[in-house]
């Protein structure tokens, strides 16, 4: 499935090309207002398509992250089990022999990917997934810093 940012770029390009292309379903020479109807319909259709794909992408990302949505209100035994499989080196994508500087630079690079300002334009589901990942990255960094 295509990354939402790339999909958004392509859909915007398609919409702009359709707006400036002289041949439309309803020709623009029939009147400026009447000729724009199909343009706005296409933009609405592309927006709906993008929102649906974004929801599917968020659902897939949530499933791929181990279904943390379902586990948030779960018992302490499940939390303890997930805690035992918590590997801060894997989360930060570094080697276990990494220096303090490498750990810090990996932390900063990973946080830039999931920072709330970077995902503010995405849907609510993706923002939640990004928040969970940012918390995981923060916990991994805290554990390695000690």
Taking the alpha carbons of the first and last residues, their distance comes to 39 Å
Q: What do we call the CATH homologous superfamily of the largest domain?
A: DnaJ domain
Count of domains: 2
Q: How many β-strands, per DSSP?
A: 0
Average of the residue pLDDT scores = 76
Q: Helical region count?
A: 8
Percent of residues in helices: over 70%
- The CATH class name of the largest domain reads Mainly Alpha
Give the class from helix and strand content and strand pairing: mainly alpha
Order of helices and strands: HHHHHHHH
Q: Per the principal axes of the C-alpha atoms, what is the gross shape? A: elongated
Would you identify the CATH architecture of the largest domain? Answer: Orthogonal Bundle
CATH topology of the largest domain: Helix Hairpins
> What is the gyration radius calculated from CA atoms?
22 Å
Describe the main β-sheet briefly.
none
Flag low-confidence runs: 67-81
List the helices and strands and how they pair.
Blueprint: H1 4-20, H2 32-35, H3 37-64, H4 68-71, H5 76-84, H6 88-92, H7 100-114, H8 124-145
Structure description:
The protein is mainly alpha-helical and 146 residues long. The chain has two domains: 1-64; 72-146, DnaJ domain (Helix Hairpins, Orthogonal Bundle). Helix content is 71%, strand content 0%. It has eight helices and no strands. It has helices at 4-20, 32-35, 37-64, 68-71, 76-84, 88-92, 100-114, 124-145. Residues 67-81 have low confidence and may be disordered.
